[in-house]
Amino acid sequence: MALYDIKMIPKVVIIGEPAVGKTSLCNSFLGKPFSHAYLITVGVDFFSKDAVYDLNGLKVLVSWQIWDLAGDYSYHDIIGPYYIGSDTAAVVYDITRRDTLEKIRSWIFQLWEKSGQIPIVIVGNKKDLRNETEECVAPEEGQKFAEELNKEYEIPVYFIETSAKTGENVEELFKLMFKAILWKKLKKESEEHKE
Question: Domains of the chain, with CATH numbers?
Fold first, then answer.
């Protein structure tokens, strides 16, 4: 008997401004130690990991195909094709840098232009630094932005705050992305059934 009932191989992209912690989130999910050194992602990095999730009593093996895309604008032409075929995305901002939240709308539209309007997760990262800086983005602001996009485009836009450093909510982020890919899969099946 198989250890799982269903297998999925979703493509996800991790996007956002430079130095918001995209690679650190990937490393945290993979169980790698946190590094304080900032190493710029040159173009694209790729990670994969298998995880098992419960779906109404069924065990679903998800073989995550994770594309960590550079935030530096000099790579925008290079990263564009990597959006194509994505099932969901984590759009990351740094809660200690308000400008990174303000710029995620352009990241989302660039993604949707290439991938179609896929469900996404907006991620406020560096939650562990909230008490060290006065000008932090409040979680309510990120939640409100997600709700506005959800209402405007009628697709799931989830929100979560994480800490790549402590690992807080990193597993929960991927559970939300699992929820997003299920929504996309059910929507596709529903549209095919109508034809």
Answer: 6-194 (3.40.50.300)
